[in-house]
Amino acid sequence: MFRERKHLQELPSSSGNLPKWTQLQETKKTHKVPFEDNCENECTPQDLIQSWSPPQKRPRICKGKENEDVPFVLARRPRKKRESEAVISWDSLPDELLLRIFHGLPLVDLLKVSRVCKRWHRLAFDESLWHSVDLTRKALLAPALSQVLTAGVVALRCPRTCIGKPSLKNIRSLRVQHMDLSSCTVSVAVLEDIIGRCFRLQDLSLEGLVLSDQVLICLAQNPELLRLNMSGCSGFSAHSLGEMLHHCTRLDELNLSWCEFTSDHVKAVVNNIPESVTQLNLSGYRQNLHIADVEVLVARCPHITNLDLSDSVLLTSDSFQHFCKLPALHQLALSRCYQIHPAALVDFENFPSLKMLEVFGILQDTNLPILTKGLPHIKINSCYFTTIARPTVGSKKNRDIWGISCRLAYRAPFTAK
């Protein structure tokens, strides 16, 4: 009863152009109309829109034995545009070339480039770059000292600095071989911790520091020690001093001047000093150094070339007979040994190897030309300060440490006066 409802397109047009409508229907079956044409109508079906939309990439979900419960999604990073072939990236440079570039940087800039990335941090703290470092006048030395010692420094110069408490918990053995801690402000416990981790020391300066028996025991663990400067030190016993000298059998230069020594300390030195010593400074022991000690000293160290016994008021001209037993003696200092008569100094003409003689305080300036004429082969009073075992000799601008030039140096900020 109901009339069948026809679609509008199935009705014939008023013009009666039926063949043309039939041809349009066949064209629709064989050829798809572009998506833009179909979307002009607001009643476009949703299925048609989705069929003509570009396919969307779905993340790839990976499942395996190890992630059955929590699957993870693999996502690709967007590809970077290839740089021009003429431009060289820093990442493409080999480690050897970067190390060569970093070698020319000062200390401050080297620390800056170490913060760029992990690779640069690893290269910036390579052992080859931290061979020799000068931290003189560094205000807060504890963090810098920890970093420098961890980097494997070989030659370290930091005199007249305030050392806090550097962290060295993860380091059992330090690579440092040449170290200058002269006149530093440092506690005995920190000094014991640092020296206790050193086993390769060749040159060491502890001038003006308060030490302990434990520090000297740790020094005895360095059989390669060649130069030792302990001028003005205190806080250790005569027994520990003798044990340290007994184990350091390769010592060449030794400076023990003006320490808080008793007669027992002096005897421990002359009875245990190694035969290898060629330069010795044992000045400043007014009432503790006797002629008998000089006799023992000369017998143990016959190869001495530079000897300083200044400010030993118990020495007389009778000690000259013992100096004659030193065939290689080149320089001798007897300044302010007031019991030596000036006329007795002429006896040094029998010392053919002696080239320099320091007798400040014994000889007046008016008598100096007379003695110079009597000893023409000897320079008299030509050296005001001793250089035995001293790390730096010369002006304050000299940053060398036992002849080693420090490559990295801390520069204190400029302060206007």
Structural commentary:
With 417 residues, the protein is of the alpha/beta class. 27% of the residues lie in helices and 11% in strands. The protein has 14 helices and 16 strands. The strands form three sheets. The chain has a twelve-stranded parallel β-sheet with strand order 13-12-11-10-9-8-7-6-5-4-3-16. It has a two-stranded antiparallel sheet with strand order 1-2. Strand 3, helix 7 (141-151) and strand 4 form a beta-alpha-beta unit. Helix 8 runs parallel beside helix 9 (213-219). The termini are far apart.
Please, how many helices?
Answer: 14
Biggest β-sheet description: 12 strands, parallel
Mean of pLDDT: 82
Computed Rg? 43 Å
Order of helices and strands: HHHEEHHHEHEEHEHEHEHEHEHEEHEEEE
- Based on helices, strands and strand pairing, what is the structural class? alpha/beta
Quaternary: single chain
Shape: elongated
Across the major sheet, the strand order is 13-12-11-10-9-8-7-6-5-4-3-16
Strand content: 5-15%
Number of strands: 16
Relative helix content: 25-40%
Task: List low-pLDDT spans.
Answer: 17-25, 27-31, 412-417
User: Distance between termini?
Assistant: 116 Å
